[in-house]
Amino acid sequence: MYPRLTIDLKKLKNNLEGVARITKEQGRCSLMIVTKGVCADREVVKLICRHPAVDFVADSRIQNLETYAERARKAGKQTVLLRLPMACEIDKVIRFADISFNSELETLKLLNEEAASQRVKHKVVLMIDLGDLREGIFFKAEEAIYNTVSQVLSMDHLQLYGIAVNLTCYGAIIPKHDNLSRLCQWAENIEKTFSIELQMVSGGNSSSIYLIEKGELPGRINNLRLGEAFLLGNDTAYGTKLSGTTDDALLLEAQIIELKEKPSIPIGESGVDAFGKKPVYEDRGKIKRAIIAIGQQDTDITSMNPLDSKVDILGASSDHMILDVTKSDESYSIGDVVKFKVGYGAMLKGATSNYVEKVYK
């Protein structure tokens, strides 16, 4: 059935081994693999849990961790909740996440109470905001950082496991030796002030891995959290391909449902499209247009590239995508399948959609 996301498990294993070589052998960091990009797909999770190089398996949704916590723990991996916990999910966080990332004292108190109720000790990683302005205590707020650390250390059922930063996801701030060195300095300050040893200093996500290959990752960083680097084979700072990986382990495929010659400019007064935006059209004259059965509900057209380089994506509504196949050397017919490499957005939406079938190679 189509549309479908084809997942090549052999290529993904190759990618996993590629990022493991960079992260663990070159960077001397522990490896945390993030599953949210494929919505914790069961076969991909099996692959991750079987691999000896993986130390932690992480997701931003507690519902996803719930589906594989038992499998991961049996395989010797620790489970990690990346998104700050919501108050309504505290019981599941304690139950299914060995470690959670946090920045709010009120949430930490709730975690401590629930951990006491479940008679466990829960590990927490304190997020430090180095300027990307997503989650974390701002790195210049010294009093807030020291106060939070002090209070966590006083909680009987929480362990301060480490500190971490997230960069590029909101403010698009690129990890550099300079800004990550601030995180390392905070690790040293906390350890010295409170006479403790932090187990984890997590230097970010797939946007930080390029620093290892350049020899510029600060030495105190001992963990990276990799999703896109593993799944799509590239760093997210500059979009460069990582050595030993491939970018076609996941392909999105959709079937042609209409194929006609029509003008390239809509006729009549133009308003806004289905998503409230005013579109701009290029006058290509009369063209051969293919409609495929997938749309914005199921994918992100801005992060898709047809394998047929002579096919252009013109646009999409919620459930139709319009292609210009005029210059293609292929003689497309109704029912033919068009294949696309995917970027992060297309992969994420395709993996999450119930209308996109997942198949494996």
Question: What is the compact description of this entry?
Answer:
Its cofactor is pyridoxal 5'-phosphate. The chain is of the alpha/beta class and 361 residues long.
- By DSSP, the count of extended strands is 17
Return the structural class. alpha/beta
CATH topology of the largest domain: TIM Barrel
**Number of helices, counting only DSSP H or I runs of 4 residues or more:** 10
- CATH superfamily assignment of the largest domain? Alanine racemase
Distance between the termini: 15 Å
User: Residue share in helices?
Assistant: 25-40%
The major β-sheet equals: 9 strands, parallel
Instruction: Spell out the helices and strands N to C.
Output: EHEHEHEHEHEEHEHEHEHEEEEEEHE
Name the CATH architecture of the largest domain.
Alpha-Beta Barrel
The CATH C-level name of the largest domain is Alpha Beta
Mean pLDDT over all positions: 97
Count of folded domains: 2
Q: What proportion strand?
A: 15-25%
| Unreliable residue stretches | none
What descriptive keywords fit this protein?
eight-stranded mixed sheet; elongated; 10 helices; alpha/beta; 30% helix; PLP-binding_barrel; Ala_racemase; Ala_racemase_N; single chain; 2 domains; nine-stranded parallel sheet; Elongation Factor Tu (Ef-tu), domain 3; 361 residues; TIM Barrel
